[in-house]
Amino acid sequence: MVSPPSVPSVRKPDPSRTGLGGRDFRLLMAATLGTFANYAPMLSVVPLWASGGGAAHSGVGATTGVTMATTVAVQLCMGWLLRRFTLRQIFMAGAVLLGLPTFGYALSSSLGWVLGVSAVRGLGFGMVAVAGSALVADLVPPAQRGRAVGLYGIGVGVPQVLLLPLGVWCAEHVGYTPVFVVAGVLSVLAVPLVWLMSGQRADERESGAPAATTPGQAPRLRPLATPWTLLITAACALGGATSFLPLALAEPAAAPAALFTLTGATMVGRWLAGVRSDRAGTGSLLVASVATCALGMGGFALAAETATGTTVLAVAAGLVYGLGFGALQNDTLVVMFRRAGPRGHGVASTAWNMAYDAGAGLGSLGVGVLAQASGMRGAFAASALLIACVLPLAWRESRHP
User: Fold this and answer.
1) Which residues contact 363 (CB under 8 A, 6 or more apart)?
2) 159 HSE (CA, 13 A, CB side)
3) Helices 286-303 & 310-340, crossing angle to 10 degrees?
4) Per-residue model confidence as pLDDT tens digits over 334-366
5) Whose CA is closest to 329, among 270, 250, 263?
6) Which of 72, 250, 321, 370 has its CB 3.0 to 4.6 Å from that of 379, i.e. a possible disulfide?
């Protein structure tokens, strides 16, 4: 009698480790808070540090420009990295590259040194941003993915809302070196948190077997094109608004209040869109979110270059745009994850992050060029019109099953 061939036993992942309430997701959220607690305050503190070292306005602006340039550069290489390393390994390496160089700022405020440190940190941030959002899709099943992406957005947004102003205050009242040290430590501490994650995937838990992988297999990029276009268009407007609102609004309190409202509303929009996505299906808010972004930019155009009464209008525009852009971030990322499939989460995350980062940089440049020709009001109005032009794409995308 011939015994049947033995079937290798498959260890099912522990449900307590994966999923929205699992230990791995909680560790990812803690690591995200740590790395973005490094990234967010440096956006304001590093330019001030370079300015104190004698850098001109162009040099001060270059500190952020270099960071974002290397961020996009490493994202262009993510396909190569994803074929050779796991998402956890990429996240840990990124946290180190983001955190350790931060200690180096304290050594000198000369522009060349600051730009060099910023360039290395940009590489780390690009790796953390891509790996972090891809891990969200790996750790939760599709039925919970919308809420998970929304929670991840809160983890990204809270440091930016709280630590952007707090970092500047601490640098001015406590000193730059303590700020650099604390920010560096917070990013490096993310490494053991990610190392403690199990490495299990939610799709493994659902099927009881590891997800199959075919050598050389990669998700197609064409299905990601429409959500990518929607996001980069709205991100261009965001880059222009964050860079030029302080110059466009006459009342001193208007720009800080509008930017604070915009950032907070973005987090709320991401969470609410995530809840709706899990209940009503992915992409259900694409049309509404794009239209809301256009309306918000139209509000900024009305508030620009107006002598009085701009604060209330600018805050209202920030609220409208923030809610719309937050919902658009969530829906486009969830749609991309769905289109890319279980083995393409890294590619989808890379495409999404490149749309966001490149859009913000291009928008700042484009609005500056337009403002030279037509003023700030005309530049913001053109941004609103550009967003409105992609509404047909959003409508078509929302009709896909």
Assistant:
1) 235, 236, 237, 238, 239, 240, 241, 243, 383
2) 23
3) 150
4) 888 888 877 788 888 888 988 988 888 788 778
5) 270
6) 370
Taken as a whole, the chain contains a residue count of 401
Q: Where are the domains of the chain?
A: 23-201, 222-398
pLDDT tens digit string along 226-280? Answer: 999 999 999 999 888 887 887 788 888 888 888 889 988 998 998 898 888 777 7
CATH 3.20.20.100 at 23-201, yes or no: no
Two tokens, residue 395? 């409508």
354: number of Cβ within 10 Å: 21
* Degrees to nearest 5, angle at CA 173 with 168 and 179: 55
**E strand or H helix at 284:** none
- Alpha-carbon span 103 to 148, nearest angstrom: 32
Contact 150, 330 (CB under 8 A): yes
Give 3-state DSSP helix, strand, coil % of the chain, rounded to 5.
80, 0, 20
Residue type, position 229, single letter? T
User: Can 23-201 and 222-398 be said to share one CATH topology?
Assistant: yes
Structure tokens at 22: 């699992």
**222-398 topology per CATH:** Growth Hormone; Chain: A; (1.20.1250)
Select from 47, 57, 55, 219 the least CA-distant residue to 137.
219
Query: How many Å apart are CA 381 and CA 354, to the nearest integer?
Result: 25
Angle at 160 between CA 321 and CA 98, to 5 degrees: 130
DSSP state of 221: S
CA distances in angstroms from 274 to 92, 142, 144, 328, 329, listed in the order given: 27, 12, 9, 10, 10
**Spatial separation of the C-alpha atoms in residues 268 and 274, rounded to whole Å:** 10
Distance CA 287, CA 281 (A): 14
Q: Which of 308, 325, 329, 307 is nearest to 317 (CA)?
A: 325
Contacts of 82 (CB under 8 A, 6+ apart): 90, 346, 347, 350
